[in-house]
Amino acid sequence: MTEIKKFSPEDLKDNPVIAQMGQYNHEQLLFCNDNETGLKAIIAVHNTVLGPALGGTRMWKYNNEMEALNDVLRLSRGMTYKNSISGLNLGGGKAVIIGDSKTQKSEAFFRRYGRFIDSLNGIYITAEDVGTSTQDMVWVHEETNHVCGLPGKSGDPSPITALGVYVGMKACAKLQFGNDSLNGKKVAVQGAGHVGQYLMKHLHEEGAQIFVTDIDQAALKNAADSFGAKVVGVDEIYDVDMDIYAPCALGATVNDNTLSRLKCSIIAGSANNQLADENVHGKEVLEKGIIYAPDFAINAGGVINVYAEVKELSAEWALDKARNIYDTVYQIIKRSADEKIPSYAIANKIAEERIAAGEKAEV
Fold first, then answer.
1. Residue 178 DSSP symbol
2. Is 280 helix (H, G, I), strand (E, B) or coil?
3. How far apart are CA 91 and CA 25, in angstroms?
């Protein structure tokens, strides 16, 4: 039997993982490994003051374990804020699986992952995310009840996520342009995945001019054929003459390089962690007169959809709650303009105040 080393408090004092948990004030981390299936995952529970931690499972080809750790810590913290500001009785958590979602999936793989989730005894509830699907969640459900987004229930969260982004974008337009019409507005959508496709459908129906980029050529063809979107290069998207930039892929696309190139007056999209450094770039967008819709406020439609499943609420309840993202975003942006404070800081403050008070909403 391999000897397991025991660590003293002194050994752990300077541990980088423990230090990062302290930086974001996380409650728990679970590192998952299974040699037989090849599973390597990290489950992060950030905060459970308002309820069990809910957040999806992302599967991605991370370059290394530390990159995966950084991602899951940021994402789980974002879920705490998202659930809080949306008035849901949920805490924040997230999980990442390190691997190739196109080649490594199997029933055994996700059932083993489900047993890890079940070992947390309901502290963490998962759902699909980037790189995972409803079928994956069905396999997870074979081993645990602490999973949502199953077929026949809330299902794919993309349509309701896109609805929330769309109405949040309209709220930004009302403050920036004087009315919330998107007819004729030039919108650059960075990412043509499920959420991006549903968002473009809303934009097309309202008469917006759409520019789109992605690495998936089939998704781009659908965007062009179905919504009249003009396809541009992955890097070219930042130089488009646009009114609204909608980041709908991975995070950190608002950064030192892109901010000097973006010609938009609104940033509103579905991606998580859109600002590479919120303390730096949140202030810069405000100084440039760009309205930024905080990601965890505008992209909350998906978690609202899942919450409805957890609490056995109707689809109509979820749709109404998602439409309320318009008011949430409007109040954040207006308060940001009135107080001359970056919108992300206003959103953070609102979420933190509810968590500090431990106030659970009436449903």
1. S
2. helix
3. 13
Range of weakest confidence among 3-12, 117-126, 147-156, 268-277: 3-12
The half-sphere exposure of 76 on its side-chain side, counting CA atoms within 13 A, is 32
Q: Are 264 and 242 in contact (CB under 8 A)?
A: yes
Q: Which two tokens stand for residue 127?
A: 């759902």
SS3 content of the chain, % helix, strand, coil (to 5): 45, 15, 35
213 DSSP 8-state letter:
E
Beta carbons of 38 and 109 less than 8 angstroms apart: yes
User: Where are the chain's structural domains?
Assistant: 9-76+90-141, 158-357
Gap between the Cα atoms of 60 and 346, Å rounded: 31
User: Torsions phi, psi of 148, nearest 5?
Assistant: -130, 180
Q: Is the dihedral of CA 70, 196, 297, 303 positive or negative?
A: negative
3-state secondary structure of 53: strand
Cβ 48 vs Cβ 123: under 8 Å: yes
Q: Is the dihedral of CA 328, 152, 311, 126 positive or negative?
A: negative
* Positions marked catalytic: 94
- Asked if the domains at 9-76+90-141 and 158-357 fall in one CATH topology, the answer is yes
What are the pLDDT digits (tens) for 298-344?
A: 999 999 999 998 899 999 999 999 999 999 999 999 999 999 999 99
Q: In what order do the strands lie in the sheet with 230-231?
A: 230-231, 209-213, 186-190, 244-247, 266-267, 291-292
More confident residue, 144 or 6: 144
Topology (CATH) of 158-357: Rossmann fold (3.40.50)
Q: How many helices (H) and strands (E) does the chain have?
A: 15, 12
Chain segment 122-146, per-residue pLDDT in tens: 999 999 888 999 899 999 999 999 9
What are 62-119's pLDDT values in tens digits? 999 999 999 999 999 999 999 999 999 999 999 999 999 999 999 999 999 999 999 9
Considering the domain 9-76+90-141, what is its CATH architecture? 3-Layer(aba) Sandwich (3.40)
